[in-house]
Structure to design on (126 residues):
C-alpha cells in the first residue's frame, strides 16, 4: 500500500484580471462584507474573503485589456436569504444571467460589473 504524500499546499488567493481593480474589488468587498486593501503588488487591490489574517483573498490585477476566454472557474456564494441577496447584489452592479430552480436547490448565475460570472446558491428545504 502506497502512503500518500502529505498535503503541503493550501488555497491562498483567487487572481482576477480586470481593467479597474479598485472598482471591482469595491464590488466584491461590499458583496462579501469584507475589507478592501492594497495588494502586495503595486496597482493590485485585494479583498479578504475569510478574514484578513487567514485568507484566501481575491486579488484584482489591473491590466490594459481583459481576455474573452471563459476559464470555467466561478466563485459560488451560498445564502439562506436568496431573494434579498439577489436584490442586494444587483443593486451593487451585478447582472443576473440565468436562474435554475430544482426541488432541492436554486441558483442564479450572475456577472459582476466586469463581466466575471459567479453563482448565488440556496438550498431548499423539502
Amino acid at each position: 500500500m502506497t502512503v500518500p504524500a502529505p498535503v503541503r499546499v493550501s488555497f491562498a488567493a483567487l487572481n482576477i484580471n480586470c481593467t479597474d481593480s479598485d472598482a471591482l474589488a469595491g464590488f466584491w468587498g461590499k458583496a462579501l462584507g469584507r475589507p478592501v486593501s492594497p495588494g502586495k503588488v503595486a496597482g493590485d487591490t485585494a479583498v479578504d474573503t475569510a478574514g484578513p489574517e487567514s485568507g484566501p483573498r481575491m486579488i484584482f490585477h489591473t491590466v490594459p485589456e481583459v481576455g474573452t476566454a471563459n476559464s470555467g472557474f466561478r466563485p459560488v456564494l451560498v445564502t439562506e436569504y436568496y431573494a434579498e441577496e439577489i436584490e442586494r447584489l444587483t443593486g451593487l452592479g451585478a447582472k443576473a444571467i440565468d436562474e435554475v430552480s430544482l426541488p432541492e436547490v436554486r441558483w442564479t448565475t450572475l456577472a459582476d460589473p466586469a463581466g466575471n460570472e459567479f453563482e448565488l446558491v440556496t438550498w431548499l428545504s423539502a
